[in-house]
Each structure stands twice: as C-alpha cells, then as structure tokens.
Amino acid sequence: MRRILICIAVVILGLMSSAEARCRKLPAWREGYLDIHFISTGRGECAYYVLPDGTTMLIDCGEVETANPKYPQVYPRPDSLTRTTDACSRYIRHFMPRVGRDTLDYMVLTHYHIDHMGAMEKRFSRDPEGKYVLTGITSLNDKLPFRYVIDRSWPDYNPSTDEFFGKRTVKNWARYMQYGTSRNRFKAQKFALGSSSQLGLRHRPGKYPDFRILNIAVNGCYWDGEKVVDPYDRKEKGPRENANSCTILLSYGDFDWYAGGDLHDLTLELPMARSIGRKVEAMKAGHHMAWNTMDTLTLAVLQPRVIVCPAFDSHKPWVKVLRENIFSEAGYSGPRSLYITSTHPSILEEMPELAEKAASLDGHVVIRVLPGGKKYYVYVLDDCDPKYRVLHRDGPFYCE
C-alpha cells in the first residue's frame, strides 16, 4: 500500500511540475541581459533584440498571407483572426524594457523579400494619406514608432533587384521611406558595411565596452576586418536578392551571435565565415535552412552550439540539409541544438526523427545571455498563448 501511495505521489508531483513549467513566464529583462527573440507568426520572419542597456532593435517583419500553393504555410499564430503585425506589436510591447518604453531604437530590413518586409496583399489598406500599403514593417510602424530605419539601399532604390516578387513591393517600400523621413517619423540610414557603431548602444554605451554589433555583409559584399571584399563577378548577373542581405556579427563578452538574413551560397557565406575565423555560440539559420544554405564548410568554421531556424512553410527547413549538414558531423563534431519556430507537418512526415533530434519544433524562441556574456539560456514560449508561457528552458550553455 505504501509503495502504491508513493507511486501516486510521484506521478502527481510530476504532473504538477510539468504544469508549473507550462505556466512559467519568461523572467523580465534586466539591465545587463541580452535578449534575442524570434517571434513565431507562421507568416514571415521577425527578430526582436533587447540589448544590455535597454536599446531595442527589430530585424525584419514579414507578412505573407497568400502563399505559393506548391509550398503550403503552417497555421498562423496565434490564430487565423490575428493579423501578423498585430501579433508582432503585441509581443514587442509585452517584452519592451522600461528604458525604451514604446519606441524601437532600430528597425533593420535585411533585404527586399515579402517574408521579411511584407506582401502586397489585396485586402491590406493604405496609410491615411494613401501613400503606401500597410504591410509588414510599414504596418508595424503604424502601431509602433521607430527611431531609425536601416536598409541596404537608402536613399537610392532599384526595384529590379527583387527578382521574385516584382517591382511593386520595393516601390511601396521606397514610398514609405520617403514619406516617413519627410514627416520626421524616423531617420533613415543605409546599412554601413564594416561599421561597428551604426547599431550601437543608445542608452548606456560606456557601461558595456565588451558589446558590439559589426555590420559584416550587405549587397553581396563582406567586411574581412580591414576592407570590403566583393566575391561576385558583376559582369554577370551578380548576386541574387538573398545574397544582398544585411548581415551582423554581435559580440557580448565571450558570446558571439551571427545573423545573415537569407544568405545561402558558398560564394559569399563561406569566405565571410572564414573572415570571422572563430566559433560562434549561436546563429540564425541562413535562408530558413533552404536547400542551398548551411553547408558543411561554413558550419566547420562557425560551429554553432545553438541554431535558430525561422520557418513557416512546407519546404523549409530542407530535410536534406537537416540530415546531411545540421545533424551530421560532416562539418563539425560536438553537440548542437536546433530550434525551429514552426514546422510544417509534411516535414515531419518526411523526417519523423526530427521530433527527437530538434530541441524545439514550434514556438517563439528567446536566447537570453546573462551579464558579461559568459553563459546563456534558450527559452521556448507558447506562440498560441497571449501570456507567452514558457514551454521549456534549455541551458545554461557556456561561452568559449
């Protein structure tokens, strides 16, 4: 009888601890923390940063409702009634530090693709003066002020650079940038390759001398530490739009974070990784881990312990890349943890072992680096819950 009671007690305690884990909230940001949030909407990529002094930065805010029927999207998060930019603005305001209040210090657009900037959906309205369509970043700015908007081209835009989605998307963006700057809604800047001050701390920079963001690649070129290098033959077509992505290397103490937009080929990604020349603790998967990215040669250089893959349709992440690059030791040995913001069921049908191999298949992903950059944790939050309950926490991971 006693053994039965003990077993029942163990089961009850297990259920209670499991329920408690699901009810936990992400502990509030405190000064000295570095938080990197990947907001899961199922409709595009959006990353929100809270830097150690409370400086805030958003990188991309895609919004795609009409998907390619060949590659169906995952179910929208938190639900089908909430517009993507509403979901993003609520999330950001929920986790906004007091220092920044309700204004984002930086809004960075990596490149001109709709899953990063917003699609020209028919039902989307225009701004009150009818100058531009409210989609993705332009719609988010209608709900949340930005201090600086940074892209790869300001002030000269060439719509022909967008080979996938036509000229209308880039023209809409150009109208938004011209209108916003002329009304003093925000200041605009071109992403400065090689700069380690453009995306600097804005509140207490002197308190964190071991923090910096280096602009390491843009427009098909990269910074090798001394000069700009162009690996493409410009007499040919040159780089496609993904390879033009604004790319950063963030360092905080011993913690290094690499985020390369949608970079995806050996022409640029490998020599740039070699110019970094060291391991990074964590990285954003290039091009949502599509077929032509995350090659073993690049991984052999960067050797990330944690990889975050923002995904939202049936062909990303690419199963072959998962099997042959991410979960093999062809590039590097040692542990690695993969966090996917949303995984389409068809990917699991093709690769059922992914459920065990990946650290997470769904949810907002938050990397929290502790003061001084010696160790960090990864939190996965419920992307269908308005309170953003913590589903699980991994770590600590220690920085080398």
* Intertermini distance: 52 Å
Number of domains as seen in the coordinates: 1
CATH homolog superfamily: Ribonuclease Z/Hydroxyacylglutathione hydrolase-like
**Looking at the structure, what is the overall shape?**
globular
Q: Assign the CATH architecture.
A: 4-Layer Sandwich
Output the radius of gyration.
Answer: 21 Å
* Spatial order of strands in the largest sheet: 6-5-4-3-2-1-15-16-17
Sheet-strand content, in percent, reads 15-25%
Secondary-structure class: alpha/beta
Count of runs of 4 or more consecutive helical residues:
10
Order of helices and strands: HEEEHEHHEHEEEEEEHEHEHEHHEEE
The main sheet comes to: 9 strands, mixed
Number of strands: 17
User: Which topology does CATH recognise?
Assistant: Metallo-beta-lactamase, Chain A
Percent of residues in helices: 10-25%
